[in-house]
Amino acid sequence: MHIVQPGMEIDVLKENGRIANENYRLMKSHGIKSVDFMGSIGAGKTALIIKLAEKLRAKGVRVCAIAGDVTGADDYGRFERSGLAAVNCNTGHECHLDANLVRKSLSKIDLDEYDVVFIENVGNLVCPADFALGTDYRVVVISTTEGDDMVRKHHDIFLHSDIAILNKIDIADAVGVDPKVIADDYRKLTGGLKEIYMCSARKDEGVDEILAALGL
Asked: In the chain, what are the domains?
């Protein structure tokens, strides 16, 4: 992807990668582990982050979050009401966070005060795949309410993530979705080299396994 300006051509993805590396080094210099949560609107990213953060804080782990959205502060407000320190990050019109937006958000956080930073990306299963943010892990969250063809429709985001999570398994029967179909598609796509984790953030099912997979 290139942007052409008078007398100048910018490789957007290359520049994003450079800043992402800076973000990674910055967080590592403060001893922070970080996770980028990608996924479509309604997949349950916010609820899952809140549940993960609650469990970590109960163990004395200091957690904060960056809430990414095109506009508004709804997810940021949910984080704050749950007791999770957070920074709101609006893209304005872009369908994804990028490394520069995350860099600006990190500048608003006292990084010495935290052990873990969770980043909730903009709700989208396409654009975020191309834009690394500089995190330790990239996670894609889907839900049973989206149907059983998510993996077949969106190869890139699953291939660009380290871990996949299928949320809302408690209502799989009600929405007529077989989680095994999704899991089989994922293992076929990734050659069985990556794991997909089944969970219900609402019912606290599978959340501990996700923490373990993230090394938390």
From this structure: 2-213 (3.40.50.300)
